[in-house]
Write a structure and sequence with these properties.
By secondary structure, the protein is of the alpha/beta class. It is built from 26 helices and 22 strands. Helix content is about 35%, strand content about 15%. The chain has a six-stranded parallel beta sheet with strand order 12-9-13-14-16-15, sandwiched between helices.
Length: about 800
């Protein structure tokens, strides 16, 4: 909308006065949290004992964040908006805490930190203090969905929050340090996926205060015309607010907010009422204010305000240096706290004049506590999607293709409510999940060509070749009360290692806060996995994401390796219904033998680990050896080895144990799903050799089971970083996970077999040699391998 058509572009003097009062109060509270241990209202001269012994926190970004919070309050109240704000500069924790305290939402969650002098004293004392709250915008802060300790993800979270929330405005403050990260740079492309009909709006606010910890920031040093060209190239229309005079900046910020929101409303109206289909050029506010604005201009003769020196604590030696103490008191009194708080420490009416009411307050919005909004996902009956299994190993299916039919039904059943999304980096069809396209196309707002398929401006399948964006979108979606699944090639999910770290930490902390309601779990489907990346080769072969996740908080993480299609259906049903977990499901997309009927799969998955009696030869007695397996390819190799043992060593008592839930291997005291020692010993015995074929790096199984009785009998085969472009079976041979090697391991480890079964062992070694020669001559696996099936 042209600027001359924008409404409410000028503040009255009274509005300016009250907005400035709110902003000054927030600045005072932010600085107080960094410095003060006592004397919160400065009712007496500052003394060293009033100062915290350790000064921690970040002042530099706080005044700019306070300005944004103040002006969001104004437009929320004036326009009746449902609004969420994602605070990218997470170091600005003092600001968001200060503002939530001012509006009363903080005291509602923490009644001992009320809006009075004792509450202010607690607010100050707890900040970055033992037993208190972190210095970042963390789960403890009302109104937050974004941990600011690691930069780069704010804008992706904001877009994820806006998806399928058509009445929601998501403001996103992006620090200019954060704007230098790769994930944030990619996040600007999210506007090509935002549907103005069914989604809310995202208002990015690029806060350029000039500096990171010790260096200038790239975007702050670009000429304005160059920065405008960059933002316009991303598909945004920039609106600039620049200055250091508070009154001037307040007026400019109010005008910018009104202009941006008028343009957003016009774009949504055009799409929703007039049927406009052109891609929207959404507004972005570029806010340039000094780093450390309104703080000390100089300290010890050195410039501080508007330099990198104001990033953290502008006055570091306050307890020891009387001049610094005097300067701190002058700084705090410059906000005129006696005008902002009454004698009991309560904010005065002018300070609260701009604050919205009830759930419209940024700290009270239910969109930042998504568990209050989440609904049960309508999961269909699995029997309608199960593959028939009359006997184990007689048929083959592609497990993820079978799952795709289930996800299609979930998409159809959520079409009206729009609270389920499938995300992935350009791999939905590659991962055999393309059935979902019959229920929903791929979200897309950019140009289309006749050759394109399944693109849909209203689609709920999201594909972009950025794992960071897939993760960020889904996290924002889940944290605001919806459901989803992230499908990814196993080797490349590592790109989001640090992002899942942060989400797990968020969930762990949230679980400890009684006011945070449980949200839908973050579910990964890792496919195109290490054992069937024989065509892409070594670069696509890495099963280590499971190791990474299992290092994290045990109350949050779960890992599942379903061995066939029906167990995958059972696991998917479980994880999609679950709350407050990070679930990692590893399953193949290539044809795989069907081992269990749907009923048997349910029972087996509920156990998490169990004996497959039909595969072993115990015959009711104690086993001589246990063959354990976890993962689809390892399971097939174990069963092939069991069949070889049945043929060549028919008197050997073999037990086959399949593990679906990897955390079952942990002791009960270390993980909620862990087995007791009694359970573990019952499955794996205390004194028999255990040959365990595992999907990933073998040392993980040792780590999970190292405290178990009989650990010295455990021998694990898995991926040992030997990969290339080769045949499927050669991958397992290269890593000594193949059936012949497993039989050799049994012979080597069962007492008495080394001599008695020497001829059998030699046959197994010869088979590996024949394999080596065959694939180089024919380019395919041995017929006895390629045509193998279970026939016990």
């Amino acid at each position: 909308m042209p600027e001359d058509q924008d409404t409410r572009t000028a503040l009255t003097d009274e509005e300016l006065r009250t907005l400035d009062a709110h902003w000054r109060a927030a600045n005072y509270l932010a600085a107080g949290q960094i410095y003060l241990l006592a004397n919160p209202l400065l009712t007496e001269p500052l003394k060293p004992e009033h100062i915290k012994p350790r000064l921690l926190g970040h002042w530099g970004t706080s005044p700019g964040l306070n300005l944004v919070y103040t002006h969001l309050n104004r437009v929320i109240g004036a326009r009746g908006l449902d609004t969420l704000c994602v605070w990218g500069p997470g170091h600005g924790g003092p600001s968001v805490l200060a503002n939530s305290w001012l509006e009363g939402s903080y005291g509602e969650k923490y009644p001992d930190v009320g809006r009075d002098a004792p509450g202010m004293a607690r607010l100050f004392r707890q900040f970055s203090f033992p037993g208190g709250v972190p210095s970042h915008v963390a789960p403890e802060v009302p109104g937050s969905i974004h941990e600011g300790g690691e930069l780069g993800y704010s804008l992706a979270h904001a877009y994820g929050a806006a998806l399928d929330h058509p009445g929601l405005l998501v403001a996103c403050v992006i620090g200019d340090g954060e704007a230098e990260t790769g994930p944030l740079a990619a996040s600007w492309h999210s506007n090509k996926f935002l549907d103005p009909v069914h989604d809310g709006a995202v208002l990015p606010i690029l806060h350029l205060n000039g500096y990171k910890i010790a260096n200038p920031t790239v975007l702050s040093r670009l000429p304005e015309a160059e920065l405008d060209s960059l933002l316009r190239g991303y598909g945004h229309e920039p609106i600039h607010v620049t200055g250091d005079d508070p009154a001037t900046v307040h007026r400019a910020m109010a005008r910018a907010m009104d202009t941006a929101l008028d343009r957003i409303a016009a774009a949504q109206r055009a799409a929703r009422e007039d049927g406009a289909t052109e891609r929207v050029s959404w507004p972005v506010i570029v806010l340039r204010t000094p780093k450390g604005w309104t703080g000390p201009a100089e300290v010890d003769g050195v410039p501080v305000e508007n330099t990198w020196r104001s990033h953290q604590v502008p006055l570091p030696g306050v307890r020891e240096n009387p001049e610094h103490l005097h300067q701190l008191e002058a700084w705090l009194r410059s906000y005129r706290p006696e005008e902002l708080f009454d004698a009991e420490g309560r904010p005065v009416a002018d300070v609260l004049a701009c604050v919205p009411e009830g759930a419209r307050r940024l700290g009270a919005t239910p969109y930042a506590n998504g568990g209050l909004l989440v609904r049960e996902l309508p999961m269909p009956d699995l029997d309608g999607f199960a593959v028939p299994v009359d006997k184990p190993g007689a048929t083959l299916h592609e497990p993820t293709r079978v799952l795709g039919d289930l996800l299609k039904q979930v998409m159809e059943d959520t079409a009206g409510r729009r609270d389920f999304r499938l995300v992935g980096p350009d791999e939905t069809a590659s991962n055999r999940l393309q059935a979902v396209y019959d229920a929903s196309g791929k979200a897309w707002q950019a140009g289309t060509l006749d050759v394109d398929e399944h693109l849909d401006p209203h689609g709920r399948v999201m594909e972009i070749l950025s794992e960071h964006l897939c993760q960020g979108w889904l996290e924002g979606y889940l944290l605001t009360g919806r459901h989803g699944l992230f499908s990814c090639y196993e080797a490349f999910v590592h790109i989001v290692d640090s992002m899942v770290n942060q989400h797990i930490k968020w969930l762990k902390t949230s679980r400890e806060l009684p006011w945070r309601a449980p949200i839908a779990s973050l579910n990964y489907l890792l496919t195109s996995h290490v054992w069937r990346q024989d065509h892409n080769g070594f670069s696509h072969q890495d099963p280590g994401f499971v190791d990474h996740v299992l290092n994290k908080s045990p109350e949050v993480v779960r890992v599942y390796l379903p061995p066939d299609a029906n167990t995958l259906l059972s696991v998917a049903d479980h994880v999609l219904r679950s709350r407050d977990y990070v679930n990692v499901v590893v399953a193949g997309k290539q044809p795989c033998f069907d081992w269990l009927s749907m009923d048997a799969a349910r029972v087996h998955c509920a156990r998490g680990a169990g004996i497959w009696e039909w595969a072993g030869t115990e015959n009711g007695g104690a086993p001589d050896v246990v063959l354990g397996c976890a993962g689809d390819v390892p399971t097939q190799e174990v069963l092939a080895a069991a069949q070889l043992l049945r043929r060549h060593l028919p008197d050997l008592a073999v037990r086959v144990v399949n593990v679906v839930d990897l955390t079952r291997l942990l002791p009960r005291g270390e993980h909620p799903h862990g087995m007791t020692d009694f359970e573990y010993d019952g499955l794996f015995t205390t004194d028999k050799p255990v040959i365990f074929a595992y999907h990933g790096y073998p040392w993980l199984i040792h780590r999970l089971a190292y405290r178990r009785t009989g650990h010295e009998n455990l021998h694990v085969r898995g991926y040992k970083e030997s990969g290339t472009t080769t045949t499927p079976f050669d991958m397992v041979v290269r890593n000594d996970l193949d059936r012949y090697r497993l039989v050799m391991d049994v012979i080597d480890r069962v007492p008495g077999l080394a001599v008695r079964a020497a001829a059998v062992r030699q046959r197994m070694a010869d088979a590996r040699t024949r394999h080596h020669d065959w694939i180089r001559a024919h380019g395919t696996d041995l017929p006895e391998v390629a045509e193998w099936s279970w026939n016990a």
